[in-house]
Specification:
It is a single chain. This protein is an alpha/beta fold and 429 residues long. The chain has one domain: Arginase, Chain A, CATH 3.40.800. The protein is 33% helix and 13% strand. It has an 8-stranded parallel β-sheet with strand order 2-1-5-10-9-6-7-8, with helices on both faces. Strands 3-4 form a two-stranded antiparallel sheet. A two-stranded parallel sheet has the order 11-12. Helix 8 links the parallel strand 9 and strand 10. The chain is globular and about 65 Å long. Bound molecules: zinc ion. The site of zinc ion (ZN) has 7 residues, from loops.
Length: 429
């Protein structure tokens, strides 16, 4: 458990879009590197490109370039001041995903349709002298820079996988946009053009022979596109926690895969208002047994920070320290089962402060630290609590997880976290 004591205060480059409840970000230097006994710790590959900022939806759209701009400014400041050791971050440029790589999960006709739409927008921009955007699919807009941004977003995790395979990086963080997990084989959807993490899963198998891929998705939304692409595949296990019912509507616990893939899709639909008291035992007592049974060759994490309590598009109650803990569980899983091989791929996160602080905190965790970058604090106390034991027991039985490794539960409350009275439970079926 991280100690959240303040030891230094970085310049806060986050936008002043709202009054922060606490005065200053609270940070803590990373712990000493070297979790592995042999040799110095390999760095974390950080894959980013300013071209991600050239994907321009309409001005008031929630998925905006500033999400990554501010996240990178905060990360740069933390590295500059030494809170994140510079030698533990390997900055890499993404490459363009090829049509063949995209076609491992997308219809070629769709890939070409995106290219044509972007070309058309670029032509219109040239005629008008202005930068415009157009709707490609439901809640997906493209601008002249969108094809390059989307191809780089899909290529970024592949660069991370290569760096890990070549022994240049221990793990990787692809800080990309547009996000990907809603993108379906034949269409974009929900801010997503190409399914970046799904392309990465196929690449891990085809290029590096890491056949068994575990995809963990803690974005507040169900990754319907990722689920669809691997629904009948026993070699790609998709584990998703998400608010339910919520956009995009899928992700019921009864969606468990099909054919040879039956059981390889594990959906954890959670009621609005779920926080650490629900997520932590789910990860300890459902995800850990899933990983123990599957024993993945590589883990990919769809990291969306829109389950943060300050996010405008979700109604969950996770805090930045919670995202640190959940990410550290996944890091520990990768250490146990696949020699640390983990690629984190950015999905959602629409409060600019929470997005930047969670991204920074996840990078700290990947580099072996346990520091938290957070000035947003805790959500207000809940009126009631969920019966997470019932949720866990139902999943345990549904997925036959008895007998596999799980971790003991933490105390119900975090230090410093406000908790409701235990005498006021709310039963959920
Ligand atoms: Zn989301």
């Amino acid at each position: 458990m991280a100690d959240h004591a303040s030891s230094s205060t970085p310049n806060d480059p986050a936008p002043q879009q709202e009054a922060a409840p606490d005065a200053q970000p609270v940070t803590q230097p990373s712990a000493a590197p070297g979790a592995r006994p042999a040799g110095p710790r390999l760095p974390t590959a950080l894959i980013y490109d300013v071209a991600f900022l050239d994907h321009l939806p309409p001005p008031d759209f929630p998925e905006q370039p500033e999400r990554l701009r501010f996240a990178m400014e905060m990360i740069d400041a933390l590295i500059r001041e030494g809170t994140i050791p510079a030698e533990l971050v390997l900055r890499l440029a993404p490459r363009l995903a090829t049509e063949l790589e995209l076609a491992s999960v997308h219809d070629v006709s769709y890939i070409r349709r995106v290219a044509r739409a972007v070309e058309k927008q670029a032509d219109e921009d040239a005629m008008s002298g202005e930068t415009g955007s157009r709707e490609l699919a439901h809640e997906v807009y493209i601008s002249a820079g969108s094809m390059r941004a989307a191809l780089l977003a899909a290529g970024a995790p592949l660069v991370g996988l290569d760096a890990i395979a070549e022994g240049r990086a221990r793990n990787a963080y692809a800080l990309v946009r547009p996000p990907g997990h809603h993108a379906r084989p034949h269409t974009g959807m929900g801010f997503c053009i190409f399914n970046n993490i799904a392309v990465a899963a196929r690449y891990a198998q085809n290029r590096h022979g890491w056949r068994k891929v575990l995809i963990v998705d803690y974005d507040v939304h169900h990754g319907n596109g990722t689920e669809e692409m691997f629904y009948d595949d026993p070699d790609v296990v998709y584990f998703s926690t998400h608010q339910y019912p919520w956009y995009p509507g899928s992700g019921a616990s009864g969606e468990r895969g099909a054919g040879p893939g039956l059981g390889a899709t594990i959906n954890v639909p959670l009621p609005a208002g779920s926080g650490w008291s629900v997520y932590d035992p789910i990860f300890r007592q459902v995800l850990w047994p899933v990983a123990d049974r599957f024993k993945p060759d590589v883990i990919l994490l769809s990291a969306g920070f829109d389950a943060h309590w300050r996010d405008p598009l979700g109604e969950m109650r996770l805090t930045t320290p919670d995202f640190s803990d959940l990410t550290m569980e996944v890091i520990e899983m990768a250490d146990r089962y696949c020699d640390g091989r983990l690629v984190v791929v950015q999905e959602g996160g629409y409060n600019l402060n929470a997005m930047a602080q969670c991204a920074s905190t996840v990078l700290v965790a990947l580099t072996g630290g346990d520091g938290i970058v957070d000035n947003l604090g805790q959500p207000p106390p809940m009126e009631s609590r969920w019966n997470e034991e019932a949720i866990i027991q139902a999943l345990y039985e549904l997925h036959g997880l008895a007998g596999y490794r799980r971790k003991a539960r933490q105390p119900w409350t975090r230090p410093g976290a406000a908790a409701p009275k235990a005498s006021e439970p709310t039963e959920r079926s």
